[in-house]
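Lab notebook, page 48
Experiment: co-folding of the full assembly
Goal: obtain a model of how the components sit together before planning crosslinking
Operator: M.T.
Materials (sequences as entered):
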Amino acid sequence: KAGVTQTPRYLIKTRGQQVTLSCSPISGHRSVSWYQQTPGQGLQFLFEYFSETQRNKGNFPGRFSGRQFSNSRSEMNVSTLELGDSALYLCASSQNPPGTGGFEQFFGPGTRLTVL
Amino acid sequence: AQSVTQLGSHVSVSEGALVLLRCNYSSSVPPYLFWYVQYPNQGLQLLLKYTTGATLVKGINGFEAEFKKSETSFHLTKPSAHMSDAAEYFCAVSDNFGNEKLTFGTGTRLTIIP
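Observation: model returned without errors.
Model output:
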């Protein structure tokens, strides 16, 4: 099975621009989560989608949004970029059906976003 | 709210020596606990997890961890370090309500001394 893929791998933007990152989960996985990784704040949960519905959301401003399509692929969007948004954005997928937990999350290699 | 504390942001051990990475958690509900490893320029890979049952959990690459409820700990160990173990290690916790959200510790960078 192919792993989680994320595109693009690297991205450079300037302040005020917006960006869209894409994630394709492992085939058959319906849950997709997004995390931001920075040297200062570490790994922080952004949001999780399951069957096109946002199931959980982290403590990030409204500039960060996401969506999931019927084929489970997910995108996240950051509008009005700030310097502090520079980070590695990781996507993870799992099988986790509703009402269960503890399933392994499989992570993609991430998209490294640099905001100048 | 859940939280994870990893003691020691950097740990160095000699090749062949015991590896011990510490993790303490805080959770108001029975937790699910995970250890992930991250190699440079890569995503995270699951080493092992505890959900229920046996408190000593064996994972990949010779790693194991023991869930100690009384100490709220989930320390990661490996009897004999290998050069390929050099990486960053993250302990994480999630609740048992079907919530995918992982709360991570700040990570421990493991260096192996030849």
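Interpretation: Residues 63 and 79 of chain A are 5 Å apart (CA to CA).
Next step: discuss with group before ordering constructs.
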